[in-house]
Specification:
Helices cover 65% and strands 4% of the residues. It is mainly alpha-helical and 110 residues long. Strand 1 and strand 2 form a beta hairpin. Helix 1 crosses helix 2. It is globular and about 60 Å long.
């Protein structure tokens, strides 16, 4: 069964903020600071983020919140080495998933 979230074309700013556990003001701020975030705006002016935008937020969140980089450092990283950064992020994400799965198996052992 396909997850309902993967069927969405656009995410509201509130949904994106909830995904990362941050305020909507931080999402708006990152949108202004990082060129890779380009939400669509509807007739009312509401931001509509695509899956690509959400993926870019994951990268920014990882660099700024998890690795502790400055905004300038994260901007440079995404500008100069985006492909490398994405690859490293995917590896880390997969390793976290494997760790969770192993911990789940360990908890089921007698």
């Amino acid at each position: 069964m396909v997850a309902e979230e993967s069927l969405k074309l656009y995410y509201s700013i509130g949904e994106v903020a909830d995904m990362f556990g941050v305020n909507t003001s931080l999402i708006r701020f990152w949108e202004k600071e990082f060129d890779v975030i380009k939400p669509h705006k509807n007739k009312k002016g509401n931001r509509q983020f695509t899956k690509a935008d959400v993926d870019n937020f994951h990268l920014i969140y990882h660099l700024v919140k998890e690795k502790g980089m400055t905004l300038k450092g994260a901007q440079q990283q995404l500008k100069n080495r985006k492909d490398e950064t994405e690859l490293h992020f995917e590896v880390i994400k997969r390793l976290k998933g494997i760790k969770e799965e192993l911990l789940s198996i360990k908890s089921q052992l007698p």
